[in-house]
Amino acid sequence: MRRAAVIEGFALLAMTALSVYAFVVVIGGLIVDGDAARTAGNIADAEGRFRIGVACFALVAVLDVVIAWALRVLFAPVSDTVASLAAALRVAYAAVLLVATGHLVIASQLLTGPEGRAGFTTRELQAQGLLQIDAFNAVWQAGLVLFGFHLLLLAYLVIRSSYVPTWLGILLVPAGLGYIIDSFGLILVRDYSFSVAAFTFVGEALLMLWLLVRGRRIRLRDDSRPSSDPRPQLLANGATR
Fold first, then answer.
1. 77 falls within a domain
2. Cβ distance 139 to 100 under 8 Å?
3. Is residue 83 within 8 Å of 150, Cβ to Cβ?
4. What is the pLDDT of residues 70-110, one digit of tens each?
5. Contact status, residue 163 vs residue 150, Cβ threshold 8 Å
6. Phi and psi (nearest 5°) for 218?
7. To which H or E segment does residue 209 belong?
8. How far is CA 3 from CA 87, 101, 150, 163, 211, in A?
9. Closest C-alpha among 181, 114, 195 to residue 151
């Protein structure tokens, strides 16, 4: 259990670093919304950086599977059924992210590879490349519905457990709702641009830090709760709440 907590903490840290690079340095730095020509030029000038960013997205999906396993091990004593469902939702989200990443691979082939150029004009290739990038965003953001529900189940597990502070679980609730609201907003509202999740990610970050600092001190103690409470007592460094 302690090993799973530590693995999850470091996997979350690695995933955060890869995501920041992929989204901020690569996607944010190279893609110009609505301007296919400038986007194509930026990607052609920084092809290596773009491809590294695409690889980062693929690695994030792999880490999501690792995190799903760790969560399953960590919270099975609280509820095996809920922990398994939460893990399954995260794995499903990882699969969606991989599908979305495939659109970026196609975009790189269209904009930089000779195999994508036959029979198309430069403008057509640029337009198709931007459409593939837009498809990545659409598929990924739709998949965040799965991630949002995963966080809600994780919040339940944290609150019901006795080894992670309850307030961390409470903070995960708005994080999960933020992803769900944003995903359905993009589906239901034309030109939806507001991001609720941009203001509700604090719970995810604090959970990662808690696991990194306190995860290796988790231990199971069966005699810490009154017999009327069936939940297992899981403590970090002997702390009680």
1. yes
2. yes
3. no
4. 999 999 999 999 999 999 999 999 999 999 999 999 999 88
5. no
6. -65, 135
7. helix 202-214
8. 17, 30, 22, 15, 11
9. 181
Helix 36-45 and helix 47-75: axis angle, to 10°?
Answer: 90
φ, ψ for residue 223, nearest 5 deg: -100, 20
Please, what is the Cα angle at 229 between 223 and 234, to 5 degrees?
Answer: 50
Under 8 Å CB-to-CB from 87, ≥6 apart: which residues? 68, 69, 71, 72
What predicted TM-score, i.e. pTM, was given to this entire model? 0.84
- What range defines the domain where residue 115 resides? 2-236
Domain presence at residue 174: yes
Q: How many domains does the chain have?
A: 1
Do 203 and 172 form a contact (C-beta atoms < 8 A)? yes
Q: Is residue 25 part of a domain?
A: yes
* Separation of CA 29 from chain center: 20
Give a yes or no: residue 128 inside a domain.
Answer: yes
> One-letter amino acid identity for 225?
R
